[in-house]
Design brief:
The protein has two domains: 188 residues, Medium-chain alcohol dehydrogenases, catalytic domain (Quinone Oxidoreductase, Chain A, domain 1), CATH 3.90.180.10; 141 residues, Rossmann fold (3-Layer(aba) Sandwich). It has ten helices and 16 strands. α3 crosses α4 and α3 crosses α9. The protein is globular. Keywords: Cytoplasm, Metal-binding, NADP, Oxidoreductase, RNA-binding, Zinc. This is Zinc-type alcohol dehydrogenase-like protein. Belongs to the zinc-containing alcohol dehydrogenase family. Quinone oxidoreductase subfamily.
Length: 338
């Protein structure tokens, strides 16, 4: 099968950073789906895993953690899907990724693809949707059916992949007042189009900008951009007994003591946790993606696809990685077909 992978961890402008390969087709285990990949989304996790380091693989490593495709075969214990089903999923960071014609994925972390979307639009959704959903509705404890409607949520980083679906989940499902950040006219417009009530500039002083729109505190904060830079502002802005979640790893120690007087919560979200540790509730990601698929089909949510960058090959993936590393991408980048 055709695939794109690496042996060495190199800067993205190096011609061997990602390579076109021919690899043997994988064989499904008991819980696995063997999926014929039709389209893949590209995410920051791709370039973070590929980042230069002093390491060399003896067998090629295939990246990619967003896919939509068709089930070709199923393992002996599979009950949720059958050959011919269209699925979408983010996969498991400990296994071979989606930048290949055929991929294995555990049935418990795959969802039925939205019927109203094509493969490219569906592939834009899984990783970011799981991340935003788990951040809001599991880590922060917000009710997905509107019990906390009217409460305030600050999303730091609203125009990227996670923020783009996050704005929709927070506004259209939970009914929250959504304040998000963006730094350019086109990204501000994108956030407003998706439903943000207020958009402020994450390059400026967050506290002062919140005061300008009449808010001293917010009930919840979701940090999708630069935890180190924004932690002190988040600690000041969160209400007493409020909750903060971040998906962005810190570089320096965080001054967590700033949250003590408010009895505020800080929690991490990593959407790969369930698959990495084979947690007993892995199937929640299947249920989540299936529910979101229905919400898409019902018109309550929309895809966050921004650009289809051509077929799945090393040259196009290098171009996608470079664009993401530049830090100015709005929505999601997708590649389709081999």
């Amino acid at each position: 099968m055709k695939a794109v992978g690496l042996y060495r961890y190199l800067p993205i402008d190096h011609p061997e950073a990602l390579l076109d390969l021919e690899l043997p087709a994988p064989v499904p285990g008991p819980q696995d789906l063997l999926v014929r990949v039709e389209a893949v989304g590209v995410n920051p996790i791709d370039y973070k895993v590929r980042a230069p380091k002093d390491k060399q693989e003896t067998t090629p490593r295939v990246l990619g953690w967003d896919a939509a495709g068709v089930v070709e075969q199923v393992g002996a214990e599979v009950t949720l899907f059958r050959p011919g089903d269209r699925v979408y999923y983010a996969g498991d960071i400990t296994r071979a990724g989606s930048n290949a014609q055929l991929q294995l994925v555990d049935q418990r972390i795959a969802g039925a693809m939205p019927k109203t979307l094509d493969f490219a639009r569906a592939a834009a959704l899984p990783l970011t949707t799981i991340t935003a959903w788990e951040t809001f509705f599991e880590r922060l404890g917000i009710d997905a059916d509107g019990a906390h409607a009217g409460q305030t949520l600050l999303i730091i980083g609203g125009a990227g992949g996670v923020g783009s679906i996050g704005i929709q989940l927070a506004k259209r499902l939970a009914g929250l007042t959504v304040i998000t950040t963006a730094s350019r006219p086109e990204s501000v417009a994108w956030c407003r189009e998706l439903g943000a009530d207020h958009v402020i500039d994450h390059r400026g002083e967050l506290v002062a900008q919140l005061r300008e729109i009449g808010l001293k505190h917010v009930d919840y904060i979701a940090c999708f951009n630069d935890t180190d830079r924004h932690f002190r502002a988040m600690a000041e802005l969160i209400r007493p007994q409020g909750k903060i979640a971040s998906i962005v790893e810190n570089v320096a120690p965080l001054p967590i003591e700033l949250l003590k007087s408010k009895s505020a919560t800080f929690v991490w979200e990593m959407m790969f946790t369930r698959s990495m540790f084979a947690t007993p509730d892995m199937i929640e990601q299947h249920r989540l993606l299936t529910r979101v698929g229905q919400l898409i089909d019902d018109g309550r949510l929309r895809t966050t696809l921004a650009e289809v960058m051509g077929p799945i090959n090393a040259a196009n993936l290098r171009r996608a990685h470079a664009q993401l590393e530049d830090g100015h991408t709005i929505g999601k980048l997708v590649l389709q077909g081999f």
